[in-house]
Amino acid sequence: MQAATLPDVARKGLAARFGTVVRRLRTSAGLSQEGLADLCGLHRTYIGSIERGEKTVTIGTATRVADAFGLRLWQLLKRVDES
């Protein structure tokens, strides 16, 4: 098995931080994963994968998530950066 490259490690760290922020926002809003998925137009299992840091999201998906929380994309990304 080949060791992960630096960009792979950094990407997984960012995905985990993004997922943590999404989970915090979702639970603060009193939403289930399914409820958030409905607001975003995504599948509930995909939301779970995002929250666990298993998926890296596209800018389009990140925008849909931000919109679901009533945030602009930059506001969501700022929270990720500060986490």
What labels describe this entry?
83 residues, 434 Repressor (Amino-terminal Domain), mainly alpha, 5 helices
Q: What do you see in this structure?
A:
By secondary structure, this protein is mainly alpha-helical. It has one domain: 434 Repressor (Amino-terminal Domain). Helix content is 71%, strand content 0%. The chain contains five helices and no strands. α1 packs across α5.
Rounded to the nearest angstrom, the radius of gyration is 13 Å
Count of individual beta strands: 0
Element pattern in H and E = HHHHH
Strand percentage: under 5%
Sheet/helix structural class: mainly alpha
Describe the secondary structure blueprint for this structure.
Layout: H1 6-28, H2 33-40, H3 44-51, H4 59-68, H5 73-82
Helix pairs in contact: 1-5, 2-3
What is this structure, in a nutshell?
This protein is mainly alpha-helical. 71% of the residues lie in helices and 0% in strands. It has one domain: 434 Repressor (Amino-terminal Domain), CATH 1.10.260.40.
